[in-house]
Write a structure and sequence with these properties.
The protein is mainly α and 1287 residues long. The protein is 63% helix and 1% strand. The strands form two sheets. Strands 1-2 form a two-stranded antiparallel ribbon. The chain has a two-stranded antiparallel sheet with strand order 3-4. The N terminus and C terminus are likely disordered.
């Protein structure tokens, strides 16, 4: 039966897609080309028509395949054609659907915006209509609620209003463009009824949320602020925990105002700060009340908001009294908030315009109270002490914190060190750990042995006995590192601590006991480390004075008091033992490097080598009888069970007698020893290849490698491997089992993944690597066609484990097939193979004692790999390898093109610039001129940001997250390369720099703006230019630029006199760079800055001032007192009732008499004659003014709001705004504050008709006749309980 014909694409006039030979992309392009030039309606019609045809073809093809399956089996060609048409129909449907979706999205976006905007305006009109009913004012703000007003807030109206606001918020979230079309003033006016006290909590929360979504920019925030919503927010923040939803939305609104309404100050304002003019002080006071309330759930977010606001506008926070709360949190915790506040206060300290809001010697010193006041051994106090030490470490690792604590002759640091002198202070070990961390001292494992009283000479021996010979020890060892940029900061810390008496304090710890304790031994370690650091990072003149440790020597030479002599000699002996043994305990020999000939273990190694040579010599001289006996002793010829073989004898035979050609010939021809031994290693015998892979059985792999080495050492052994033994042929056949071109694969091949991972089959790769180390071995591998097998394996995606094993084990020292195998892996089609091969090649280059041209050429080839991960890895290895001059010269001679690498190749190109050939090559290519302009205008700034971020994270000043590791600059501790610094290393570079004339511009800028303290942009540019000048002066060729412009004295002046502390720190590091050359060190020495020299007399790049006070001193400043609405006084109330109520409310701020004042208010409110006072808007404003300008606890603020029977609606809000102007007392009439303001009266003057004798005695003093009394933010005061009479 012939299948019925069906409509095909060709019949329908549609593109045949995707028939064999076509692709989805080609068909889509053909379809889209037919739509070009058509409008939206025509395109939609074409797409719909094509979709109908494609669906009909798809259905027809599916029916034909389903109903005529049996017939189509016999007609394979027809079945394939139908299947092809079905696939083509599905692909075309997908393409058309995608195009229709795009068309719909474009149309919907236009329609959505118009529709959503229309809906939003409709919702806004509904809100406005719901709020118009309030336009007719009620009879009185304090009168009973009218029926009209009641209808405003009945449940049905409130639900409608909440529903409309929620829908409007949803529309704003769906399309952000709608926010720009609506008027924020109209929205704010429409939501006022929702913020009323009679509205529900949900209504008020939704209103805050709607206003927050309407705030877009500074202009919208300003227009919102004109509606005076502050009093609504203040009231919401004063609510209890039952209104958490409302408080949360109010806080989110405030944070949005802070974020959007923040603006940068002008140049005539304070440095490093902005201003938040739209965040009123009354809102700040409400926030502070939440931050001070221990049980408030929003305490932490309030403190965080205050800290963020302080960074933007410190004056705003200081005027509202927020500094006190933040300092208290910094001192008392919790630690999570303290760690956030530390950087904030250190940032404030940096600039003179912001640190004036801190009181020197009083504010930040509260952090030290966690140590100076921490007595006891309970876990809570110790944890607080650890948190305090962590905060102090954070502060002392920044320039602002270090210089602040060095004020007043380092009083704060001295008090910190003096805690070590107190024997009763139990947690001194935590303080010692803090100094270890500050000085960047790493504590290896053997420190604990020393602290526990064990002798260091015994420690290493016990470890060697407990570990098997030939294995690497697991001791954490500190590798000797070159001096880093942070070492200069550590040198300054050592100077400060030693001057503050840390060595004397540690000596006091030694005197506490003559027998020694763990604490005293830890102090000994710290003293020894400080002495070692001083010898390493300080100039000789300063280090020599520290090395004297006169207090310890004084104790050791005290013959009158025996215990002192014991303590002194024990401390000196421990320090000497520490210094003598640290080299032995910490020496870490890098893999592949030759052990030092003068090391402590040299005698042991020499003895081991002598024993090994004697053993080999005796083996070579073995007689026939002994040799035959040894062959029998191995049990190889007697049994096939390798477990019964004598492994030690077998190993001695292979490494000794068999190296003799005569014995090798005898083992091959006269006995079956060698044949039986080689049969053990044959893969298809499943003896060696089936042994479990573990640490014990790995000795058989080593034995196999040694056997092959021995065979290759003699002609008979080579002939045996080539013609008589089948090991290499079997290995080739084993690899062929994995080759898909060699027929059906084996079910259990020798080199299966499981066998390679679990058995000694992996050892064959090591054995082949042994063969590749010898030219004869490579010839044998070529003859066995093993390299051909390697080439085939490199194309297998599923066996990357085998490919990696081959790459790792093959030796590439001999030119030939091994290098071709590596090259093929480097250009594999699979990225993970290329990555592994590139990493292996890079490690080979780094560990190679000499520079090899072929390895460098291969690595340069990887720079052009299409995968970003591969060329980034190659760039990283190449940049590290170019630290060696000979490698750098070879790479430059090859003249690679690196422009395509972009920012990844900048470091490598900068290294090229440091050589004359490389600079000439880059100059001719135009790179120098192009990059020089970029660095002059932009990249200098980026350099400063990167190096400061790196320093902050290295000193753990900034927290480092695992997710941010990619953002950390990959510096190795030394100063990262700078374009101008690398340019100055060559004569041609100096000539180019001189022709460009950039350096005179740098010098002029430093002279003009060196003492800048206001403009943050100028300060950042100043830092960038200082780093540029320092990098130029760090080379012998670049130093003449500094001498010609005479800029070094200017930098020294900035380092000692700049009021911006971070600029001083930048100068400190820059001076260290200048001291990197002997000429620079000599110049700085003339100005009182001494450079650290190496034992050979060369500068190390570290430089410290001889006069510490001159560098660390901060100019004294007078703290700026808080100024704000607290200075705004109101016209005093006229009626006696208002005076009594306002005075009682004022007394609520005094915690001593607050209870009495609240009882008095309760009594006054219960009296009928006082009812009008608690419904008076002016009195309400006076109360709100007091709680907004004085310190009131959160429950008291809530109590004040509850006192008044006034609904805070639009009419009351309007009256409050009017009263703010009408009740303000002119400044000229404001009386000075009373001197006895802290003595407050809690009794109030009653009306004369009700006054008793006792009342008259206790009433306040009469008001002077020259003017009415003045109500200020301070409570009314008098002296109570005394009678002033003339006696």
């Amino acid at each position: 039966m012939t299948p019925e014909p069906y409509e095909s694409f060709q019949d329908a006039g549609l593109p045949a897609y995707p028939t064999p030979g076509t692709t989805l992309v080609a068909a889509s392009n053909e379809l889209y080309s037919q739509l070009e030039g058509k409008d939206a309606a025509q395109q939609l019609a074409i797409l719909n028509d094509r979709m109908v045809h494609a669906v009909s073809i798809k259905e027809g093809a599916e029916n034909m395949l389903h109903e005529n399956a049996e017939e189509l089996k016999a007609q394979e060609d027809l079945r394939q054609q139908v299947q092809s048409e079905l696939d083509a129909a599905k692909g075309l449907i997908e393409a058309i659907s995608h195009k229709l979706e795009q068309h719909r999205r474009v149309v919907d976006d236009k329609d959505d915006f118009r529709t959503i905007l229309q809906q939003a305006r409709g919702h806004l009109r509904t809100l406005i209509s719901l709020s118009r009913i309030v336009s007719s004012p009620s009879a009185s703000p304090g009168s009973s609620i009218t029926p009209q007003a009641t209808s405003l807030h009945d449940p049905e109206t409130t639900r409608t209003r909440v529903d409309v606001m929620t829908k409007l918020i949803g529309l704003l979230q769906r399309n952000l463009r709608v926010q720009y079309e609506l008027d924020v003033v109209q929205v704010a006016h429409a939501v006022v009824p929702a913020l009323s006290k009679r509205s529900t909590q949900l209504s008020r929360a939704t209103a805050y949320r709607l206003v927050r979504h309407m705030l877009l920019d500074l202009e919208s925030v300003k227009r919102f602020h004109e509606r005076r919503f502050d009093w609504f927010i203040v009231r919401s923040l004063a609510l209890d925990n039952k209104h958490m939803v409302e408080k949360e939305q109010a806080i989110k609104l405030i944070r949005a105002v802070v974020a959007i309404g923040s603006q940068k100050r002008n140049s005539n304002h304070a440095n490093h700060t902005g201003t938040v003019p739209l965040l009123s002080e009354r809102v700040m006071c409400a926030f502070i009340a939440i931050a001070e309330q221990p049980d408030d759930p929003f305490k932490f977010i309030a403190i965080q908001t205050l800290a963020e606001t302080m960074l933007i506008d410190v004056q705003c926070v200081a005027n509202a009294g927020g500094m006190r709360v933040l300092l208290q949190t910094l001192s008392e915790g919790p630690p999570a908030l303290a760690s956030l506040l530390n950087p904030a206060f250190l940032y404030i300290l940096d600039s003179p315009s912001t640190r004036k809001f801190l009181r020197p010697g009083r504010d930040l010193e509260v952090v030290l109270s966690g140590i100076t006041d921490a007595f006891g051994k309970d876990s809570e106090r110790q944890q607080r002490l650890k948190d305090t030490c962590r905060s102090i470490v954070c502060m002392l690792q920044t320039w602002s914190g270090l210089m602040y604590f060095c004020m007043d002759d380092m009083r704060a640091i001295r008090s910190l060190i003096d805690t070590l002198r107190i024997p009763s202070f139990e947690p001194r070990e935590i303080v010692l750990d803090m100094f270890f961390e500050l000085l960047n001292i790493k504590t290896p494992a053997w420190y604990n042995a020393f602290i526990n009283g064990r002798r260091l000479t015994v420690y290493q021996k016990s470890r060697q006995v407990s570990e098997p010979s030939g294995t690497d020890t697991e001791i954490q060892q500190r590798q000797p590192e070159p001096l880093r940029l942070t070492d200069q900061y550590v040198a300054l810390l050592v100077l400060i601590f030693t001057r503050s008496g840390i060595l004397e304090a540690l000596t006091c710890m030694f005197q506490e006991t003559t027998t020694g304790s763990n604490l005293s031994r830890k102090g000994t370690l710290l003293m020894a480390e400080i002495l070692e650091l001083a010898n390493k990072v300080l100039p000789l003149s300063l280090a020599a004075r520290i090395q004297l440790v006169p207090e310890v020597f004084k104790l050791a030479s005290d013959y009158k008091r025996g215990e002192n002599r014991i303590i002194g000699t024990s401390a000196l002996s421990s320090i000497d033992s520490f210094n003598r043994n640290r080299t032995r305990l910490e020496t870490g020999v890098a893999a592949g490097n030759r052990p030092r000939a003068n090391s402590v273990e040299d005698a042991i190694r020499r003895g081991q080598r002598q024993v090994e040579q004697v053993r080999i010599k005796m083996g070579l001289q073995m007689d026939d009888k002994t040799f035959q006996a040894a062959l029998l002793e191995t049990q190889v010829t007697l049994t096939k069970d390798h477990n019964k073989w004598n492994f030690e004898t077998l190993q001695d035979l292979i490494e000794g007698p068999l190296l003799n050609p005569k014995r090798m010939e005898e083992a091959i021809k006269l006995s079956r020893f060698l044949r039986r031994l080689m049969n053990f290693f044959h893969p298809f015998n499943h003896r060696f290849s089936d042994i479990e892979r573990n640490k014990t059985n790995m000795r058989w792999v080593k034995l196999g490698c040694t056997l092959l080495t021995t065979l290759l050492a003699s002609p008979d052994g080579q002939r045996f491997l080539a013609s008589e033994d089948d090991l290499l042929n079997q290995l080739r056949r084993s690899f062929a089992q994995l080759d898909p071109f060699n027929g059906a694969p084996e079910s259990d091949p020798i080199f299966s993944k499981k066998r390679v991972a679990d058995t000694l089959t992996y050892g064959y790769l090591e054995m082949l690597g042994t063969l590749s180390k010898n030219e004869e071995g490579i010839k044998l591998m070529e003859k066995a066609k093993l390299f051909t097998a390697f080439y085939h394996l490199s194309e297998l995606r599923s066996r990357e484990d085998l490919i990696k094993g081959i790459i790792e084990n093959i030796d590439y020292s001999i030119d030939g097939h091994p290098r071709i195998v590596l090259s093929k892996a480097l250009t594999s089609t699979y990225k993970h193979i290329r990555l592994f091969a590139t990493r292996h090649l890079g490690e080979m280059i780094l560990h190679s004692p000499t520079a090899n041209t072929w390895t460098l050429r291969l690595l340069l080839t990887q720079l052009y790999d299409p995968a970003m991960e591969v060329y980034q890895l190659a760039t990283q290895f190449l940049e590290e390898a170019c630290e060696l001059v000979d490698i750098l010269q070879l790479v430059v001679a090859m003249q690679p093109t690196l422009d395509h690498l972009g920012p990844v190749g900048h470091g490598l190109l900068l290294k090229f610039m440091s050589t004359p050939v490389g600079f000439r090559y880059l100059f001719d290519s135009g790179y120098i001129d192009r990059e020089m302009d970029i660095w002059f205008h932009e990249r200098n700034i980026h350099y400063v940001v990167e190096i400061e971020v790196w320093l902050a994270k290295t000193m753990e000043f900034m927290p480092v997250n695992d997710d941010d590791d990619d953002d950390i600059p990959s510096f190795d501790g030394v100063v990262p390369p700078h374009f101008y610094g690398e340019m100055a290393k060559t004569e041609l570079g100096c000539q180019t720099l001189h022709e460009k004339g950039h350096f005179p511009e740098f010098a002029l800028f430093i002279r003009q703006h060196g003492h800048e303290k206001e403009d943050p942009e100028l300060i950042l540019k100043l830092k960038s230019i200082l780093w540029t000048v320092g990098n130029i002066g760090s080379s012998a060729n670049g130093l003449p630029f500094l001498e010609e412009e005479d800029i070094i004295p200017v930098i020294l002046e900035i380092a000692e006199q700049s009021q911006v502390l971070s600029v001083r720190g930048t100068c400190f590091f820059v001076l260290g760079l200048i001291s990197s050359t002997p000429q620079g060190a000599e110049i700085l020495n003339d100005y009182g800055w001494e450079a650290t020299l190496s034992p050979l007399g060369f500068p190390t790049g570290l430089c410290v001032p001889l006069d510490l006070d001159k560098f660390l001193s901060i100019p004294p400043w007078d703290p700026t007192p808080p100024r704000g609405y607290g200075d705004l006084r109101l016209i005093p109330p006229e009626s006696q009732a208002e005076i009594e109520v306002t005075t009682a409310i004022s007394n609520l701020s005094n915690t001593v008499i607050a209870a009495t004042a609240s009882r008095s208010l309760a009594k006054l409110k219960s009296r009928p004659e006082y009812q009008s006072v608690f419904t008076s808007v002016p009195v309400l404003y006076r109360a709100l003014h007091m709680i907004s300008t004085s310190r009131y606890r959160l429950p008291v603020r809530r109590y004040v709001f509850d006192l008044f029977d006034i609904d805070l609606d639009e009419d009351v809000l309007r009256q409050l705004c009017e009263l703010e102007e009408s009740l303000a007392l002119p400044v000229s009439k404001a009386a000075p504050p009373q001197s006895n303001a802290r003595v407050v009266s809690v009794l109030f003057a009653a009306p004369r008709t009700h006054a008793t004798e006792s009342d008259e005695e206790d009433e306040p003093p009469p008001v002077p006749q020259h003017g009415p009394p003045v109500i200020s933010l301070r409570p009314r005061s008098t002296v109570v309980g005394f009678s002033f009479r003339d006696d």
